[in-house]
Design goal:
There is one protein chain. The protein is mainly α and about 240 residues long. It has two domains: about 1-110; about 120-230, Helix Hairpins, CATH 1.10.287.70. The chain contains nine helices and no strands.
Amino acid sequence: MRTATYFFIFLNLSLALFEEPAVYPLPFLATSVLEVLCLLVFLGRLTHFAKVTLHNVFWKDTKNICIMVAILLSLTDLAIYGVLRLYDVRSIRWSRIVRPIFLINFAESRQIRRAFRSIRNTLPEITYVFLLFMFSLLMFSLMALKLFGERNLQTAEGLPYFRNYLEIVFDLYVLVTTANSPDVMMPAFDFSSWYALFFIAFVIVNTYIFMSLFLAVVYNNYKKHLKVMPGGAGD
């Protein structure tokens, strides 16, 4: 039962590769039949679990409620999408975002559920570090706007360079990952090599200090919650 449940959960999640917009597109009839098959297996597994569980215990378990709601939403969305296709109306399969619910809430997924709860409990404790990082990013973006915004600099593609505050925030946010380095700083560096000091300071503060601090806080709190997480029978 556990192997079969995991197989159909994996199959259900894998359908995203074959549904529009798809990496390897399959006919809608094929993907819809597979999805209905998976949902029937999930419903059968839930029914079997209800047969061997006390009635009041089954209905008080939020995991079972989540699975039933996810099945209902998936079937409703599938029916609506199919009807709209008959009338050549383009729509989006919004129910795909609920598919991970099956992975988390079945009884066989206790370890995954513990990891998910640890992540959920860690989020409030890393909020302060994240807010400090965002404050630093916004302040550096404001300084960049004042330094470069009035100098009519252009990128290699001839686009305005650091003249819009929100675009500066996004460019510097990406620079934290060093994904757009050194392209983002070259127009300023070509204008004056002294401007490199601004980007060096930004990378030191945000990439090497804040990102390391952020990672340390996430790791320590996640490990702490994973150790103290209860593992009772109703987990």
